[in-house]
């Protein structure tokens, strides 16, 4: 039986942490899911030929290039997957869209609101030509998060009354952890706010189906100078004796108001000792509530306020049943998924959108909505009048 | 062997939820602890003679009165324990202090900042005559909370960098739960803010040893009208067909800045379905962190950032060891304490302060510090300019 | 209004750990519950006058005696509460029953099967004269355990298929922890088996409503010699340089078969580092399951196999709702109870049985059923043929 | 740079649940790890050509065959990976070893002790010719399990005193779940005992470094007749109206004695409602203890008995740090792994053993040791004299 599916020839720009994760997604999706298109890992784009070649061999890309501009013009490329640091997203994405390529861009969509707006305009124009675009908020693809969204949409917890969202990490809690591009405002745009705060804002938008309309926020930098990194492995590096400035926020705390009127608390920090990747959200509704913590990513907690109080309690749902999102393609109940599965699901959803010619979510507009919240937090934080003194 | 200890003759005003809890403290403390004074449950004060008599018999008070003014003038009363709703605290406390009686007042100390300031002045004057005063933030007396305070003071988690505090309940999540005095601004002063928000502010002050100096806050009322209660048992009542207005906040969310510079998030709500009495605090320091949740009141979680990363993890400390605060007087390890034990510990600490002639903590000044935070939250919430619009 | 209730005049024999817990029960029950009789803490019986007097003053008993034989003959005593070590239970209980006194005896009911049988015969004879008897398996009175029993009886988990029960402690895990009477076969009868294994056998009987009919067991002693104690506080003591033999089991592991056919695993140990008082039971039924761990004594976990698999999960029920057993007399939801509350509930249930003239549970027959299981475990453990070699 | 590594050409027999998992391991290992050999997914062997072809395309195998005998004779095959039901393992494995192919065989190694012994003899003979063999107990490759083994070997918990091991599932708890080959003694050998009980025996052997030398056991079948399956997806199928007999055990409970003298409890069941894949082991040693539950596979709990009791508690170690086994090749801290990662690690370890010419573990001898325990449990269960009656 020959494969009659259309190919989807992908070029990926960047191959660090996110590039490795995206590659695993492209490689794995066709092995577990029936995709309506046939993705090909065609070109890996990097800055230096030899490193790109080594990465391509390891990650499974057919060829390499050091010139993304040339690649996006190639006729044999259908989709550009952008995994570079945030300050390069806008330029690559806009050019790719104008060249008629579908675009998947890692989050945060951009480093500034202006860039995000420009990207969104480009995406809207491209869409009229059938060219699609998507932002890589992969945590939406965790089965427990999908289930949370479904339950809210089905009215299982009633009207949304409150949201509490946190993204707690501790990889900077050690004051001697070295600098990286993630601590450089030029490259990263912001610190905890854009890197992980963006995730909990998007998660709130996704699960509630509402948008954050107003904020009051505080940004803090606890350690203002750190060793310059000599080597890196993932987020962890080794520093030397030279020191340099941290130019981004270490923690971002903000209150928010949702479009439906619900108040919310948000906290993003890289200084919460002991919390490794605790992306958490709890939504309290008028008839029940939901809670999720990425450190137990296969679990969703549900409290159903309509249960008999005698036997009501938070249900620890292991989201590994055949009826749960994405799960029938994987393993039997209780055989949990890991971090990278979200990237596989992202590929699945993107392929299905491309095949159907429909706008995938999160769209650039969804990404822009997140960017607007981040921008408002920065403005709020800069405005001293936001805080009321206790006078104590 | 005759008892050579001085008596401490107590009059308690009010005998509802808090009166029952205080009575259990007065009754139980001498049975498990060697007190330096001999407390006597002398007089119970209520509004109606027959109800007060029945309460006194049940709770173990020797006599009753319906006139607190008369009682505070009696020579055979040493201490007045005030368990009435907040709007009556200031009048009784100030009068009792002026009459030379030690005073224990339930939290919130008062319904308004002005009352709290007046009470604090009265307490300072009384103190110069050896008359002592204390606010009933009993959660300070939970062994795990005491241990948290000790560990911070000993530098076990380094410098305080961040605090996240929540007090989540759900007894109003059902929109048909009836009205009570706790939902009436005249009597309660505020809603979740003063009732439970006060606790997490005091807990933050106590555990960190710092004060909240600034806030940005939001107060929300989700259900503005409720059935008038026909009967009550504890916090739970039955409503009829008549309805009345809710005049207090249902949820209070605020950001805070501590005197040492650390940012903090606070949330107090009675609408978090499934959270019954989740008073939680997590303090992230420069070398470790601590977490507590009253729903597991015998547990303190500690992450020590100086542990070898290979075997580092949040330690679930069962705070029931003989070396833990208060525990040697109770049961063997793992035989946990309950809610009311805090009231027994409060009596113990108060008796020791009286015997030593030393200011017990939390003092009225400590209570005033909490009140100032609550007041600033109310002002912040009323100020529309605090929120920055996202423009999305 | 005068009290028209009959008095229930109690004499308690012994005043160590269990005596303190029982006293708290007698003192507290009338303060929170409407008892149909009026318990009086009349006489405390000890071996030495001065120590007994000091204990009586602290614990609240009206008078003391050093002669239990005399006390059980007194006309003004209605009930004898036996809190001494196990080897004395049979003699005191049988004599008291023959003297027409109701008897509450701490567990384990007796140190030998023969004693338990004699006690049960005495109880049956006494019962025909309206004299009642009860064994102090107080863990039955934990609200979450009562709820478990109710749910099984209501058929909520269907037919019982399997039981897994553990009682894990660690107070002997340190090989230098000193000897106590609990490690002396003469006084304690057995070690972990009778002290804590008895509890999980009774709990299994209570929750399932079935009896253990057969066992295969192993008893182990890990540390055969320990320092002789110089002082004690609770279970914890300080040892000197002298050493003495441990003559009881440190751990008891056994398989069991219930009368309804279900297989079960049991483990009782005092060597499980980090488990302080982890009395756990999980019952898997044909349509659901229940799990309990005393280290979270206010929680019962329920999995309802008839829930939609999409939202099914273990429910963490905080057993602090007004509808839960005993709770309406205590505090609002989420304000948990502690270890000693079981002793208060025991007094409540005993007083109600006495007033009604009905056999309280657990009866001596229930205690004998436990004793038979312990005895069979000892016989099985002594029988080398029970273990099948793997020949590996 | 050309690849100078030797190829490792693999033929896999079978492609159901285990075949899919093994394929993911072969595919993924080279992408994240530097392997010393270059694995090639050469041939997939199945019973029917068309199904095998479809599977090969999906799973990524270069060609297919319907004749395993032919394949094991091919010169261009280096290793045979056996993923068929247990009753076929011995024949294929012995033939492959004799043909000079390395062999990886899924657990349980065999359905009978005789087969396992034959396989072990064949493995020993083959080993003298440099032909290697390994049993697929992949749970050994979970990072938290590896860490547990390391900590025991390093003496971190002292001498092993007790083991408690459980493997709890619920996919048969519903009495209407259909039959499968796993419930057929001819094909599966046994039920819960061999399928999941084998895992906890191997895990005990691996983590403690000791062997189970004696057992006392009970096997139970709760539901003796079930619908014949009409279709299957993973472990879950749909049954029709026809019914057939269950010929294996539903639950296996046994006590064990380790070679070092420690007693242990084991339970394997597919009827524990709410437990989806709760493979749990807790090892109590003389100075600490370890606990693991596969439902939280990225977590190892450690209690260090030498910690100050004031701050001692079970440490919830997120086994996702760069220093943890296998982790540096994956993601940053807190970005957990899933079920299938064990299969990738298995490939890594096997490739390293092949390159080094060293016996990989678990060897067939390790597999035989497990088989001996299972066999002894079956004999013990069949021996009525093992159980001692309580006579109650």
Structure explained in plain terms:
The structure is a homotetramer of 392-residue chains. With 392 residues, chain A is of the alpha/beta class. Chain A folds into two domains: 134 residues, Rossmann fold (3-Layer(aba) Sandwich); 202 residues, 2-Layer Sandwich (Dihydrodipicolinate Reductase, domain 2), CATH 3.30.360. Helix content of chain A is 32%, strand content 29%. Chain A is built from ten helices and 17 strands. In chain A, the strands form three sheets. An eight-stranded mixed sheet of chain A has the order 8-11-12-7-13-14-15-16, covered by helices on one side. In chain A, strands 3-2-1-4-5-6 form a six-stranded parallel sheet, sandwiched between helices. In chain A, α6 packs across α8. The longest helix of chain A has 19 residues. The termini of chain A are far apart. The model of chain A has no long low-confidence stretch (mean pLDDT 95). Chains B and D meet through β15 and β16 of B and β15 and β16 of D. β16 of chain B pairs antiparallel with β16 of chain D.
């Amino acid at each position: 039986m020959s494969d009659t599916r259309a190919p989807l020839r992908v070029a990926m720009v960047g191959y660090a942490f996110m590039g490795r994760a995206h590659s695993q997604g492209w490689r794995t999706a066709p092995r577990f899911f029936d995709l309506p298109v046939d993705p090909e890992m065609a070109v890996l784009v990097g800055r230096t030929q030899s490193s790109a070649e080594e990465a391509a061999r390891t990650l499974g890309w057919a060829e390499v290039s050091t010139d993304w501009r040339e690649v996006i013009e190639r006729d044999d490329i259908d989709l550009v997957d952008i995994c570079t640091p945030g300050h390069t997203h806008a330029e690559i994405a806009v050019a790719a869209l104008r060249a008629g390529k579908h675009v998947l861009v890692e989050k945060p969509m951009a480093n500034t609101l202006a860039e995000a707006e420009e990207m969104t305009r480009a995406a809207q124009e491209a869409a009229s030509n059938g060219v699609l675009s998507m932002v890589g908020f992969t945590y939406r693809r965790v089965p427990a998060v999908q289930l949370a969204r479904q339950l809210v949409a089905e009215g299982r917890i009633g009207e949304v009354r409150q949201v509490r969202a946190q993204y707690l990490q501790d990889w900077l809690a050690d004051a001697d952890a070295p600098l990286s591009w993630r601590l450089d405002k030029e490259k990263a745009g912001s610190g905890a706010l854009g890197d992980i705060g963006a995730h909990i804002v998007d998660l709130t938008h996704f699960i509630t189906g509402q948008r954050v309309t107003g904020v009051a926020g505080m940004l803090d930098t606890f350690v203002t100078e750190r060793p310059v990194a000599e080597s890196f492995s993932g987020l962890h590096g080794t520093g030397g004796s030279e020191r340099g400035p941290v130019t981004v926020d270490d923690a971002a705390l903000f209150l928010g108001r949702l479009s439906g009127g619900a108040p919310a608390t948000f906290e993003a920090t890289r200084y919460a000792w002991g919390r490794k990747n605790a992306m958490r959200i709890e939504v309290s509704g008028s008839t029940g509530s939901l809670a999720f913590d990425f450190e137990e990513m296969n679990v969703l907690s549900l409290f159903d306020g309509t249960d008999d109080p005698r036997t009501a309690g938070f249900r620890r749902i292991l989201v590994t049943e055949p009826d749960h999102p994405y799960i029938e393609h994987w393993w039997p109940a209780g055989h949990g998924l890991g971090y990278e599965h979200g990237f596989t699901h992202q590929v699945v959803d993107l392929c299905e959108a491309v095949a159907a010619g429909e706008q995938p979510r999160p769209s650039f507009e969804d990404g822009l909505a997140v960017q607007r919240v981040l921008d408002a937090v920065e403005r709020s934080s800069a405005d001293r009048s936001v805080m009321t003194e206790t006078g104590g």
